[in-house]
Amino acid sequence: MKQLAFIARLLLLIFTLACGAQAATSPVNLAIVGLTHDHAMGFLPRLQDQRDVRLVGIVETNSALIERYARRFKLAPGLFFPSLEMLLKQTPAQTVATFTSTYDHLQVVESCATHGIDVMMEKPLAVNMIHAHRMADAARRGHIQVIVNYETTWYPGNQAAYAIALDQHAIGDIRKIVVHDGHCGPKEIGCSSFFLSWLTDPLLNGGGALNDFGCYGANLSTWLMRGQRPTSVFAVTQQLKPALYPKVEDEATLILTYPGAQTIIQASWNWPFDRKDLEIYGQTGSICVPKPGVLRLRTGKTQPEIEQTPPSPAAPWSDPLSYLAAVVRRQIQPAGLSSLAVNLIVTEILDAAHESARQGRRIDLDSLPK
What we know:
CATH class of the largest domain: Alpha Beta
CATH architecture of the largest domain: 2-Layer Sandwich
Shape: globular
Number of strands: 15
Distance between the termini: 65 Å
């Protein structure tokens, strides 16, 4: 009898390990909610080449969008659903990536939280702190993870810069961070009418260039400052192209003040070229990331600047889909640039920036209503 019991326990252990190994290697079943965000155009090709994640359905009601994406990516009609509820009843979806307006992020998160489904959204997290807090509350109640996808998160240069500046402390304490983000304008670069309909709406996007591109700098600054909130935010916004963007600002400059450092964020729909670059200045050196895969390092007062090509990060920190799959499998806990904690601070910074621009003065974060 003891031998039979031992064999039974052994077989159970083998079965459990086999199931766990299969769960760790089987693709995560992903549903997409919304297609009005043009970033979905770059996301779907990634899915087709990804082994970690499998697309099981898309929630979209706009027939023109459905036709556009189905034709371009050869998607079967059976992949499209009119609601998340119907998709969840008919597919084994385990997680959601949402490409809606920023305003609709709240509804997606609250719906997914009731089903215990993790959510990844395109930046930024929310249109304001009211929405952000409601999402955080829903995530806690539903025991789900909410992560925010920024293109700049996966830049080898940015990740190498963090390691050099903070892990190695190679340039001393950080004193100044400068972030430039933007392009010549969403209409000018050919964004779709579906995207423009909410991107240039102050309610659905939370603002214009300030939210669209200011979030990158706020995200990187919060990460590089190890999750510290700035003590104050000062912002200046302008409408340099009111005929094109009558409802929102197309130019924004933010200054974030910390006890020992300062961040300058320049977010614009008026750059003559596309840019997402980062500069970090410490007590004894500097790090510049002019392109995703380029890093320029200078240490010491007399040392020449050295240009490096940092290696691509290892999975799952190499791309948003590998990262999402690892989060869903609970192999990693969201942290840093993608995390809800960091992006709550990002939303607080953006809210303060809008208030600063409106009042024409510096906003002390601790003076804002909770």
